[in-house]
Specification:
The strands form four sheets. Strands 4-7-10-3-11 form a five-stranded parallel beta sheet. The termini are far apart. By secondary structure, the protein is an alpha/beta fold. The model has no long low-confidence stretch (mean pLDDT 91). Strand 1 and strand 2 form a beta hairpin. Helix content is 47%, strand content 12%. It is globular and about 75 Å long. The protein has two domains: 154 residues, Rossmann fold, CATH 3.40.50; 132 residues. The structure holds adenosine-5'-triphosphate (ATP) and magnesium ion. GO terms for molecular function: ATP binding; ATP hydrolysis activity. InterPro entries: ATPase_dyneun-rel_AAA, CbbQ/NirQ/NorQ/GpvN, P-loop_NTPase. This is AAA family ATPase.
C-alpha cells in the first residue's frame, strides 16, 4: 500500500495513517527547530495533540482534551534523553496519547511492546528465527528484532504498554537500553547503538500497582506524566461527544445525532458513582467496583447509538443507554447490584427530568 493512502476496509488505521493529512499540513507550516530524528518540532507535535488552526486556516483536530501543560511536559521530555512514562487510572487516554505522540514525533506508532505477565525478554531485546539459527548458526539474518531494537536502529519512538505488568526482570532489561542507549548482541559480538530520535513512551495503570512494582532504578530513567480524569462534567461531555463522533464515522454507523443531553446524563451518572457523591454535593454514594471512566462512557454512548440507529427511531434515547450503563456499573453481580439499586432509587428516581431514564433502567435492572 502506498504511504498515506488509507485502505478503507481497515478497521482501525494507525494514527499516522488516519491523520496523515493533518501531519503533512503541520510539517508544511512548521518552521521551528526539530530535534534530531523528529518529523515535527515540539510546537507542532503539541498542536497535533491539542488541536489548533494553521496560518492557512486549516484545522487540526484535538486528540487529547485536557491541560496543555501536561502535553508540553510530555513532548519536552521526549526531546531529552529521558523516557516518558504516562501514568493514570484506567481510561485516561494513556494509550491514546502514546500512540499520537509516536505518530507525530516519528511518523510510526507501531513499534509497540505489550506488557503482560508473560512478556519475555525477547520481546524487549531480540529473538531468533530458529530454523535459520539451526541451519546457519547465529547470524544477522537469523536475528529477530524486537520493536525496541528496530526503534533504536531507526531513531524512532518505541512504545511499551502496561509496563508494570511485565515481570521485574524483563523490566530491568530496559535499564541498559535507556541509560546506555545500546543493546548488546553477545551472540554476534555486536551491539545496536540507538540513533538520535530514539526514545521510549511507556504507559502504566496506577490501579494495577502491585502487579509488578516499577523498580526505582527504572523509575529514575523515566519522566512521569500523570494523566488525570477530566476536571468538570463539561470537559468530560466534550471528550465523549468528540470521540463518539469520530468513532461513529469510523464504524460507519447510520447517522444518529448523539444527543448531548443523553451524553451528559451518562457522564453525570459515572462521575457521581465514581466520586461517591451526587453532583449537588448533598448525598454520599457507594462506589461500584468497576472503573467508570471516560472510556466506558464513550463505549456506552457508541453502543447506544448503534441501538438507536438500527432498532430505534434514530435518536439516542434513555432506553438506548440504560442497558450499557447498568452493564458498566454492575460488574460484581452481588455488591455492585446493591450499589446500583440504591443509586437508582435514591438519586435517579428523585430527579423529575430523569423519569424516562429511571423507567428504562428499571426495565433492564
Ligand atoms: N482527556 C481525553 N482526551 C481525549 N480522549 C480521551 C480522554 N480521556 C479518555 N479519552 C478516550 O478514552 C478512550 C480510552 O483511552 P485509552 O485506551 O488511551 O485509556 P488508557 O488510559 O490507556 O486506559 P487503560 O489503563 O485501561 O489502558 C480513548 O478512545 C480516548 O480517546
Ligand atoms: Mg491503555
Amino acid at each position: 500500500m502506498q504511504a498515506g493512502v488509507i485502505d478503507a476496509t481497515v478497521l482501525r488505521p494507525h494514527a499516522e495513517q488516519e491523520y496523515a493529512g493533518e501531519l503533512a499540513r503541520l510539517a508544511e507550516h512548521d518552521d521551528r527547530p526539530r530535534p534530531p530524528g523528529w518529523r515535527l518540532s515540539p510546537w507542532a507535535v503539541t498542536t497535533y495533540l491539542l488541536g489548533g488552526t494553521l496560518p492557512d486556516g486549516s484545522q487540526i483536530s484535538p486528540k487529547y482534551i485536557g491541560p496543555r501543560r501536561l502535553m508540553e511536559v510530555a513532548v519536552a521530555t521526549l526531546a531529552t534523553d529521558r523516557a516518558l512514562l504516562l501514568l493514570g487510572v484506567p481510561g485516561t487516554a494513556k494509550t491514546w496519547v502514546s500512540e499520537h505522540l509516536a505518530a507525530a514525533v516519528s511518523g510510526d506508532s507501531t513499534l509497540l511492546v505489550q506488557g503482560t505477565a508473560g512478556t519475555a525478554e525477547e520481546a524487549v531485546r531480540y529473538g531468533w528465527n530458529y530454523a535459520r539459527l539451526l541451519a546457519e548458526g547465529p547470524s544477522e539474518r537469523a536475528l529477530v528484532e524486537s520493536p525496541l531494537m528496530r526503534a533504536m536502529r531507526t531513531g524512532a519512538v518505541a512504545r511499551i504498554e502496561e509496563l508494570t505488568r511485565m515481570p521485574s526482570d524483563v523490566q530491568d532489561t530496559l535499564i541498559t537500553i535507556l541509560s546506555e542507549k545500546t543493546l548488546p548482541v553477545p551472540e554476534l559480538n555486536t551491539e545496536v547503538q540507538a540513533r538520535k530520535g530514539f526514545t521510549v513512551i511507556a504507559t502504566a495503570n496506577d490501579r494495577d500497582r502491585g502487579v509488578n512494582e516499577l523498580s526505582s532504578a527504572l523509575r529514575r530513567r523515566f519522566n512521569t506524566v500523570v494523566l488525570p480524569l477530566p476536571d468538570t462534567v463539561d470537559d468530560e461531555v466534550d471528550i465523549v461527544a468528540r470521540r463518539v463522533d469520530q468513532l461513529g464515522t469510523a464504524l460507519e454507523l447510520p447517522d444518529a445525532p448523539a444527543g448531548l443531553e443523553e451524553i451528559r446524563r451518562v457522564v453525570t451518572v459515572f462521575r457521581e458513582l465514581r466520586g461517591g457523591l451526587t453532583s449537588d454535593g448533598r448525598t454520599k454514594l457507594k462506589s461500584p467496583s468497576g472503573t467508570l471512566s471516560t472510556a466506558e462512557a464513550i463505549s456506552v454512548i457508541t453502543s447506544g447509538l448503534a441501538l438507536a440507529a438500527h432498532f430505534g427511531d434514530g435518536v439516542l434515547r434513555a432506553a438506548d443507554v440504560a442497558g450499557g450503563i447498568v452493564g458498566a456499573v454492575v460488574q460484581d453481580p452481588v455488591s455492585d447490584r446493591v450499589v446500583w439499586q440504591e443509586y437508582l432509587e435514591t438519586v435517579v428516581r428523585e430527579r423529575p427530568e430523569w423519569l424516562d431514564f429511571y423507567r428504562a433502567c428499571r426495565e433492564v435492572s
